[in-house]
Design brief:
The protein is mostly helical and about 325 residues long. The protein is built from 15 helices and four strands. The strands form two sheets. It has a two-stranded parallel ribbon with strand order 1-4. Strands 2-3 form a two-stranded parallel ribbon. The longest helix is centred in the first third of the chain and has 27 residues. The relative contact order is 0.18.
Amino acid sequence: MTSTTEPRAVDFTHTAAPQPHPQRGRDVLARHPEVRDLFGRNPWSALIVVGLVAVQMTAAWLLSGTSWIWVVVGAWLFGAFVSHALFVLLHECAHDLVLPGRWSNVALAIVGDCALGFPSAITFRHYHLLHHAHQGEYDLDGDLPGTNELRIVGRSRIRRVVWFSCLGFMVALRPLRVKAAKVLDLGVVINVVVVAAVDVAVVWAWGPKALVYLAAATFFALGLHPVGGRWVQEHVETEPGQETYSYYGPLNVVALNVGYHNEHHDLPGVPWHRLPKVRAAAPETYDTLVWYRSWTGLVVRYLTDPTLGPWKRVVRPSTPVDAAG
């Protein structure tokens, strides 16, 4: 793998090699066939979704009668962790790892979206599955930042901080450049209508502070926050030649093991509660890769290290769109 940029240029790292996950997953299964037993669904995740929505709505109601500063503080100190956990479970729904059938998982994801303030679950489902199938292919991987993002942020530390703080908005716009992603279908329409109705009901019942709390919690969960380290951890190339990383720190407890990202990409049919067992079964694979202990430390490093930025991603030639399915 080689970089095609000049030392001070802002560009991705380019490679002609295929993404590592499909072959590594096959290798793990060949060496450890017992790992196949870890595949399946976790229907208890549905109860967690409903519980987290109830918790987040209760917090919104409680904070609706306080001052604006406490709304924001509550969103950062508490709400962001709940919103992030909901994002993890929407991710499980995107892989149909909760309930039997596609539409049951779609419906559950929309329920989870109701506590996030923004309708994103079904659009995320569309482009995330493309991300797995075509990781690093610019025209098909909506997880990659756009070239306009690279140009705007450049190597400016201040612009990087602002960009990272607003990462939720950036991520929301990325599917628009991925022509193969369905940014509008029946599921997306239902998602938008339901979440909009819930937002109106929240404002009508509890006032604008309640909705601001929900939106702020989502905003923080996707940016300048300890759980925001996840967005750096997953695919920012901090080690030449490695494009996906795992996190094995304590926040996996409240983040439902989402830090086990190499394990997830290698074996995406394994639900969140069994991902640590994948690592335990194949330590010769996962312990030899670079991994992280601290999301907070990673955020600080990302925002202060001049060699890091949104361009530190690995890209490869894209599969023709008509072959992407």
